[in-house]
Design goal:
Layout: E1 2-4, H1 6-19, E2 25-33, E3 45-54, H2 72-82, E4 86-95, H3 103-108, E5 114-121, E6 124-134, E7 139-143, E8 145-147
Parallel strand pairs: 1-3, 1-8, 4-5
Antiparallel strand pairs: 2-3, 2-4, 5-6, 6-7
This protein binds zinc ion.
Zinc ion binds next to strand 4.
């Protein structure tokens, strides 16, 4: 399960709409509470507190793929630490596609990480879905999003 404030969610919707027709991407900072009932990571709880916007440096197919600059993760980790937080996830947008986890999204997915996917249709917000990597079958699995 993931918790995000209305304000932060609106910010991400806005960024995703403005970035249309290209994919936008960035880090989600916050706190992670590990689950106890299951051993596949699906009962972890993510509390998103801040976001870090990244540049999509993919020049060939930015409509369907995002790529971050080398060293961006380390930089984000440093910023998170400074703010007493940690990187708990990654957001990106799907311009003119639904918020499904694509084969590429699955390929790069890491455990204990929340993935938010904003679907933008014709530059307007369509839907948001959140995914966690299920470490039993190593597939991204949809999780509940609580907008507070
Ligand atoms: Zn994707």
């Amino acid at each position: 399960m993931v918790k995000i404030s209305t304000k932060t969610n609106n910010e991400l919707v806005d960024i995703s709409e403005k970035g249309f027709p290209y994919e936008v991407c960035g880090f989600l900072l916050g706190e992670l509470e590990y689950g106890v009932k299951e051993s596949n990571g699906m009962d972890n709880q993510f509390h998103i507190k801040e976001i870090l916007v990244c540049e999509n440096i993919n020049k060939e197919t930015p409509e369907i793929r995002f790529e971050m600059k080398e060293g961006e993760y380390q930089q984000a980790e440093y910023t998170a630490k400074e703010r007493g937080l940690r990187i708990i996830g990654i957001y990106h947008s799907h311009p003119n596609h639904q918020s499904y986890a694509s084969p590429t999204d699955n390929l790069y997915a890491q455990p204990d990480t929340i993935y938010l996917i904003y679907s933008i249709m014709s530059s307007k917000f369509n839907e948001l879905k959140g995914y966690i990597l299920n470490t039993k079958d190593w597939e991204l699995q949809e999780t509940k999003i609580q907008i507070t």
